[in-house]
Amino acid sequence: MSHALIVIDVQNDFCPGGALAVPDGDAVVPAINAMIGDFRIVVLTQDWHPAGHSSFATSHPGRAPYDMIDMPYGPQVLWPDHCVQGSDGAAFHDALDTTPANLVIRKGCNPAIDSYSALFENDHTTPTGLEGYLRGLGVDRLTLVGLATDFCVRYSAVDAARRGFDVAVHLPACRGIDLNGSMAEALSDMRGAGVALR
User: What does 12-23 look like in DSSP terms, one character per residue?
Assistant: First the structure.
């Protein structure tokens, strides 16, 4: 069995002081750095939105951050502008050890579709290419860490489990937003998909 570490969205905008800061988000960095050398295959994901992305509240006059709207692919939370391509907010946290990374998957690049999962955009059909990369290397076991537990980590873990990977989420190296009870829902959803929470 080949085992990969998937590091989800450890970017400045998701850390304290960022545009969409996850509480205590930067606390994941030392934990991830301590693990990263134990894996032969390391993939980093990076939210990488064009300016004016359809998931931004500013793209919908009269709407505020955290409002819900219906998009062609389903319900969508409207977010503050964050992780805009090329911005400092989109950059990885300075202290994150990115040197061992084999691959960086940039997601959310399509201006019309948000992308929480490392494997699929939010239409649940458009792939990011990560699955093909992992299959090509013979990877069948994944450990996920990063930000945020209840959004991008959750959807990545559930999608990976549904695609037949053996998936674990290492919770000490994750932090969540907990938007209207989203943490409890995420943990339940991951368990229900067969994801091991450690």
Answer: GGGSTTSTTPPT
